[in-house]
Amino acid sequence: MTAERSFRIIDLSVPLRNHAFESAPAEITYFTHRDTARRWARIWGIDPDVLPDGLGAANERIQLTPHSGTHVDSPYHYTPVSAGKPARTIDQVPLEWCYGDGVVLDMTHKKAGEGISAAEVQAALHKIGYTLKPFDIVLIRTDTDKRYDKPDYMEAQPGMTREATLWLLDQGIKVIGIDAWGLDRPFSVMVQDLKAGHVTAFWEAHYVGREREYLQIEKLANLDQLPYPFGFKVACFPVKIERASGGWCRAVAIIEGATSPA
Fold first, then answer.
1. Are the CB atoms for 7 and 256 separated by under 8 Å?
2. The domain spanning residue 91 has which CATH number?
3. What is the pLDDT along the chain (262 residues), one digit of tens a residue?
4. Which of 75, 143, 168, 190 satisfies CB 3.0 to 4.6 Å to 87 for a cystine?
5. Domains held by the chain: number
6. Where are the alpha helices (DSSP H) in the chain?
7. Cβ(188)–Cβ(173) under 8 Å?
8. Phi/psi class of residue 222: alpha, beta or left (left: φ > 0; alpha: ψ in -120 to 50)?
């Protein structure tokens, strides 16, 4: 007998992986069942062969930052002071912000290094016939996640402009996600602008967090697998790391009414 559930979950996260082409790649050391048996034997002074089949428990040791893989940025990541108050760290952000109605905006027509304007955000909403409401979780689809295992991953995306980010926040949005390394344009493009004297063009979406409190979900994936641009829930609860600037999350979209095998 095959059991079914009345909802479907779409994984919107990239894996933590050795040698990833991202800004903060994880370093993972794997310990097999036999490795752990030998470790236990050394600690406890026993022969590993006395363990069932001579095996212990598989384990891993991972070195990473809170910004490795799919994660949520806290306001403290952008600035020590947000909206005139001490910026909240990831263990302080309201969890209610991290679950809500999702809407995905298709920006796959934008080229790497280009900025996404407020007018383009509004046009994308008009195209799908959707009006934002407070606490919607807005997902920016660029399909850059398809480059996650390619050397140009960090260079392959467009990014949100300051005005586009502010416009979303003006609609009551608290969480904005993107399927790329971050909400902004590639660092190489922003640094070029910075050297040319365009100071406000550097990290402009992130720095909006100095004035307005909001969260970013970075390094999302599979936004192209969502069956429709709205009408689904998003959950992006970050790991609770004390006083941290971000936290890893297993971001997912929940499609109610769809059937899936248990």
1. yes
2. 3.50.30.50
3. 566 788 999 999 999 999 999 989 999 999 999 999 999 999 999 999 999 999 999 999 999 999 999 999 999 999 999 999 999 999 999 999 999 999 999 999 999 999 999 999 999 999 999 999 999 999 999 999 999 999 999 999 999 999 999 999 999 999 999 999 999 999 999 999 999 999 999 999 999 999 999 999 999 999 999 999 999 999 999 999 999 999 999 999 999 986 665 5
4. 75
5. 2
6. 33-44, 75-78, 118-128, 162-170, 187-195, 204-207
7. no
8. left
Residue 163, in any domain of the structure: yes
Query: Are 46 and 139 found together in one domain?
Result: no
Same domain, 53 and 135: no
Among the three residues 63, 89, 121, which one is the final residue of a domain in this structure? 63
Domain residue limits at 37: 27-63
Per DSSP bridges, beta strands 215-218 and 175-178 are parallel
Residues 6+ away with beta carbon under 8 Å from 113 = 155, 158, 185, 186, 189
